[in-house]
């Protein structure tokens, strides 16, 4: 199923495939393999890349407040609009920091420092969970910082690229 | 010595529950009082008896002295525990109890009056040889007098309500230009909060730590201190994380502050548990701020490291029992941290966030204590303080206690309203907190900046929300198919009827 998810003013195209606990969630072209169990009417246990997360979910009219240990995020969820990319609800502003969503190896670097990129354009290809995932630019702009090289192994949340 | 027969708890929320627990463990029957807004509150459910005081506004209920005394009479309670806040530091209430022949679990009414008026407390401290923050020892009236005193003390300075406490009627004044407006606001805040608009002035101690000393004093002239609590992690001038011991306090400073505290309480004929608050500057010079003549919100950290139950000791002291130990029998063992869980939105300047508690999961395991006043399904109202619970972690040392608190915060889940839980989790992971390197400006000046630019776990959040939406649609579709075909199609696992791992 295709959704447009808006979080922190950024809209992503999200595809969810699977059922009964095993899913592949693709966030703007980046695939996450998710083992998911509902653990109560307002809770879910997620295992992503071997990491276990407990998420609280508060239903809101247009989505969910997702309560994690260190933060609470409001995720607006809509059935995907027609066309290739969803229009962001509001224009992204400020530099966007692209971080590693999971531990893995960078198999390809697709951009150079200083290069102009479009929103959704591929920046890096990362290998994790035996899958190659393209990390895309969350916004249009210039590659201000490229902090990694091909072949490098990175940890979750490592800063990879800054687009401004 | 006169053992009590029944104790009325003139409070609500977590502290009322805490006191009820102590009483029950002592075999003492308990009487709860409640406002119309609190019929379903936990303290009403936990007490042996419960009586309605009046409508929701505190002045009509928890602050209504005659009604509380009347319930004590009707229920046959011979002692009243005031908790903190509400009537705890109202000399009139203690006097009314004395008059009605009901034991007030606290000091004498005149002691409350002496220490409650902040300038008379400063004079008492000075007389006992306890250093106070430089400033005025009398309330200052009028714009001209305030300006003259301000010029004498110098800027930056603090304007404070003489009748004050809890951060109300408090203003930091950085320059002479700000003085007049700040004084006007402090005065009106003080008038609203305490019904008394008089102010006094103190030099502002910059980069100060807020460190307090717990004391216990009995009716027989004996007094001890139970060491310090570090309370420098504050938001909006109100504490949110406390610990004992303080990572900043040396054995010499601890001894010096403890002796000063005991000297002061002996001098004023104090009896009850009490707390002397100090500011400690960068040179480790302590300045007495004020004394709280009641149980303190953060008392559990002291209980964890000393192994003593302060609420039970308050009751025993009020019964006329002598202190069961001497100073040299008391030690600080290990380390304890308390995190205050408020119904507030830290991302909106800690705005209160009332609402119904949709789901509640409380941590457990070694060294964890949860002093809560709420339950799943409870409606957190807007009428009273938004403190939901106090989470306390005990460890063999500070590092151990921090690790334990982090994992307990991870386990703690409150859904349905915004709470300080995620904020507390991030503070516990901040390198300056971990290093014990902070002062009272930490949250506003250090933490807030790094926190604004934090990486948010949006990918996990989006995955969780999208899968839930996906499953909801599959279920809706499945239900539709079932209805259409009249056969048992695929249905989403119903967790409630599941035979799974529950």
Keyword list:
heterodimer, A: 164 residues, mainly beta, Glycoprotein, Type 4 Pilin, OB fold (Dihydrolipoamide Acetyltransferase, E2P), 2 domains, 8-stranded antiparallel barrel, 4-stranded antiparallel sheet, 61% strand, globular, B: 502 residues, alpha+beta, Rossmann fold, Dna Ligase, domain 1, D-amino Acid Aminotransferase, Chain A, domain 1, 4 domains, 5-stranded parallel sheet, disordered C terminus
Overview of this structure, please?
The complex is a heterodimer of chains A (164) and B (502). Chain A folds into two domains: 78 residues, Glycoprotein, Type 4 Pilin; 68 residues, Beta Barrel (OB fold (Dihydrolipoamide Acetyltransferase, E2P)), CATH 2.40.50. Chain A is built from no helices and 16 strands. An eight-stranded antiparallel barrel of chain A has the order 1-2-3-4-5-6-7-8. In chain A, strands 9-16-14-11 form a four-stranded antiparallel sheet, with no helix packed on it. A four-stranded antiparallel sheet of chain A has the order 13-12-10-15, with no helix packed on it. By secondary structure, chain B is α+β, with helices and mostly antiparallel strands. Chain B has four domains: 99 residues, Rossmann fold (3-Layer(aba) Sandwich); 70 residues, Dna Ligase, domain 1 (2-Layer Sandwich), CATH 3.30.1490.20; 244 residues, 2-Layer Sandwich (D-amino Acid Aminotransferase, Chain A, domain 1); 42 residues, no CATH class. Chain B is built from 16 helices and 22 strands. In chain B, strand 1, helix 1 and strand 2 form a beta-alpha-beta unit. The C terminus of chain B is likely disordered. Classes of the chains: A mainly beta (164), B alpha+beta (502). Chains A and B meet through strand 1, strand 2, strand 3, strand 4 and strand 5 of A and helix 13 and helix 16 of B.
